[in-house]
Amino acid sequence: xxxxxxxxxxxxxxxxxxxxxxxxxxxxxxxxxxxxxxxxxxxxxxxxxxxxxxxxxxxxxxxxxx
Length: 66
Fold this sequence. Notes:
Low-confidence stretches: none
Helix content: 10-25%
Number of strands: 5
Structural class: mainly beta
Radius of gyration: 11 Å
Shape: globular
Number of helices: 1
Strand content: 35-45%
Distance between the termini: 24 Å
Order of helices and strands: EEEEHE
Number of domains: 1
Largest sheet: 5 strands, antiparallel
């Protein structure tokens, strides 16, 4: 799953952290690891994993709030 988007400075409250659920269209992903510039996630519907830049991930996905 490739994400592309505009670069922007993220407030700390918008950064993903491990264990959070995020959604991209109809796909739910769970964040498994976060570095300074990258986020690793698992696609819950397919069981696949991926890594993207934090900026691209946040630009393409929205956090699922409970």
